[in-house]
């Protein structure tokens, strides 16, 4: 994990995408695709491509001698950055710190701040802070006009309704696609392991927020990945920002945590029993509950801040 912590979340994800591309090359050793080609394929800057090549060299996948870049071997599963590593990147740590400030109303609707001001408060640099802010901005919690400071936006009931609607659309689609998953598809084992994790967690007298965050991501990520649709996976990323924002908020009401876990468990049990209509209805109920919960907690925090 040390190498992962040196880089931003975006760079780690892009590295994994590059490894996928290199898997498709017919023979090794061979020359790496040109910098221009990688810029187009990955939609990144020349500087980012150079950083990616440095990572490949550190992993022993490639060698660079001046302008000569050689792929020594195809990537192995161990070469990929795991979700744990990605979630512990510099930008992810910065994102968590910013979300905590937002959910505790240390940064409240109407507040304005610069990247430099915030970077100093969270002990980061402006580049990493900017990446975290841009990720959070996709969710609508904050916004920035050109040449102006960032501004915290009110998490309105209409925005919460939009979040619930897109989650129903995405996760409903994912559940429907599971009807066609083969018996030996790895997703079924993933659901079995998730079910065990939920039951273990529910036996604990006290559930830590970090544990809840981890299992929440694992649960929804596993369902979304079952759709086998990378565009859906990538666009769902910004929704997770709002989910985690809400999880910071429900620190004020820990009773809700076990209720959420039991809702997850009902969905998992239905999926493993291949009762897809039941799973779909349980997911809709779960997301409706999440919407009501977000509105309620948001209202309480506004009163508290006032």
Task: Describe this structure as you would to a colleague.
Helix content is 66%, strand content 6%. The protein is mainly α and 306 residues long. It has three domains: 2-83, Arc Repressor Mutant, subunit A (Orthogonal Bundle), CATH 1.10.10.10; 89-152, Winged helix-like DNA-binding domain superfamily/Winged helix DNA-binding domain (Arc Repressor Mutant, subunit A, Orthogonal Bundle); 157-305, GntR ligand-binding domain-like (Four Helix Bundle (Hemerythrin (Met), subunit A)), CATH 1.20.120. The strands form two sheets. It has a three-stranded antiparallel beta sheet. Helix 6 packs across helix 8.
Summary tags:
Four Helix Bundle (Hemerythrin (Met), subunit A), 3-stranded antiparallel β-sheet, globular, 306 residues, 14 helices, Arc Repressor Mutant, subunit A, mainly alpha
According to DSSP, the number of beta strands is: 6
Number of helices: 14
The helix/strand order is HHEHHEEHHEHHEEHHHHHH
* Distance, first to last CA: 42 Å
Shape: globular
CATH architectural designation of the largest domain: Up-down Bundle
**Helical residue percent?**
55-70%
Strand order of the largest sheet: 1-3-2
Whole-number total of structural domains: 3
Query: Radius of gyration over alpha carbons?
Result: 21 Å
The proportion of strand residues reads: 5-15%
Q: How would you classify the helix and strand content by structural class?
A: mainly alpha
* CATH homologous superfamily descriptor of the largest domain: GntR ligand-binding domain-like
**Could you tell me the mean pLDDT?**
86
Largest sheet: 3 strands, antiparallel
Task: Kindly report the CATH topology of the largest domain.
Answer: Four Helix Bundle (Hemerythrin (Met), subunit A)
Which stretches are poorly predicted, pLDDT < 50 over at least 5 residues?
none
CATH hierarchy class name of the largest domain: Mainly Alpha
